[in-house]
Amino acid sequence: MSLFQCSFFSKILCTTTKVLVSLPSYGSAKSLELPVEQVHNRREKKVLYLLHGMFEDETIWLRRSNVERYATEYEVALVMPYGENSYYTDMAHGLPYFTYLTEELPRFIQNSFGIMQNPNNTAIAGLSMGGYGACKAAFLRPDLFGAFASISGAVDMQQLADMAEQVGMASLVKNIVGHPEKIPSSDTDIFYLAQQCMERNVDVPKGYISCGLEDEACYPMNQKLKEHLEKIGYPFQYHESHGAHEWNFWDAEIQKIVKWLREV
Predict the structure, then answer these.
(1) Are 83 and 52 in contact (CB under 8 A)?
(2) Which segments of 120-156 does DSSP mark as H helices, in order?
(3) Burial class (CB in 10 A: 0-12, 13-18, 19+), 175
(4) Residue 52: C-alpha distances to residues 45, 46, 55, 253 (Å)
(5) What is the edge-to-edge ordering of all strands in the sheet holding 47-51?
(6) Helix, strand, or coil here: 151?
(7) For 216-251, what is each residue's pLDDT tens digit?
(8) Residue 211: pLDDT above 80?
(9) Which of the residues 31, 56, 165, 225 has an alpha carbon 20 to 30 A from that of 85?
(10) How far apart are CA 24 and CA 78, in angstroms?
C-alpha cells in the first residue's frame, strides 16, 4: 500500500483538517505487466471510508489494527478522516462534520487521487462513534455509499445522551445534538434514518453490523438495531462473538469486513 498523509483547508469546516489515504500499490511487478488502462481500473474497484471512535483521530486504525495489510490483500483503498468528537454529525454547537464527510471529502479524494467514487465501489465503516457515523452516512447518502459496516457501534443517540448525563458528560452530547429531547425522529436518530431510507424506494446500502458479547454499553444498542432492521426488512448481516469494546475484537472484524466488501 502507498500511504498519503494529507492536510488541507476545508471550506465547510473553515479550518485545516487531516485525512490519511492508503492506496493499493501499483508499482509491483504484477502491476507493471498490465496495460495502463487496467491498472487505472483497479484503482476504482473499492474505496472504504474508515471512521475512528471518540477521543481518537485519523491515525488510530493504522496504529492499532492490521487494516492496511487486509486492504492490501483485497486491493481496497482506505480513506481515514479526522472527525473530532462529532459523531460525524453537523454539530449543534460545533462544526458540520457530516456535510464535510459526505460532500467535501469525497470531492477532495476524487480530485487529489483520481479515484472515481459511486455506490458500486464506495463503502463506509467505523467503530463505536464511527459505527454510528457509518450508519448515518449510509442511510442518508445511499447515492454515495453502496455498503456500510458498524463495529461495536454507539448507535443509540438517546441512550448515549442518558449515559452521558449519568457520568457528567452531558455537555458533550448537547454539543452534538443540542437538546436531547429532540433526538427521536431527527437526523441524529439512526433507527428513524433506517426507516426513512427504506421508504425512499432507492437501492439501500448493504449493511454489516457486529458487536462483542462482553461490550456492556454497546451490545444492547446493537441488539436493538438488529431487531429494528429485521422489522423493517433492511438487508444486512449481523455478527456477534466474544469480545469487549477493544481492539482485539475490532481488528478481527475489520478483516472480515474488508473481505466482505469484495463480495458485495
Answers:
(1) yes
(2) 129-140
(3) middle
(4) 23, 19, 9, 14
(5) 2-10, 15-23, 77-81, 47-51, 122-127, 147-151, 206-212, 236-241
(6) strand
(7) 999 999 999 999 999 999 999 999 999 999 999 999
(8) yes
(9) 225
(10) 9
Contact partners, residue 185, CB within 8 Å, separation at least 6: 192
Residue 129 has pLDDT above 90, yes or no: yes
Identify the sign of the CA torsion 216, 155, 152, 58.
negative
Residue position matching grid coordinates 432507492: 202
Q: Which CATH class, in words, describes the domain spanning 2-261?
A: alpha beta
- pLDDT at res. 35: 57
The pLDDT, as a whole number, for residue 262 is 87
In this predicted structure, the answer to whether residue 199 has a pLDDT above a threshold of 70 is: yes
In terms of pTM, does the model score above 0.90? Answer: yes
Write b or e for each residue in 68-95: b if 16 or more Cβ atoms lie within 10 A of its Cβ, otherwise e: bebbbebbbbbbbbbbbbbbbbbbeeeb
DSSP letters, 159-174, are HHHHHHHHTT-HHHHH
| Residue found by looking up cell 465503516 in the block | 125
Where in the chain are the domains?
A: 2-261
Residue where the block lists cell 452531558: 170
Pairing of strands 147-151, 206-212: parallel
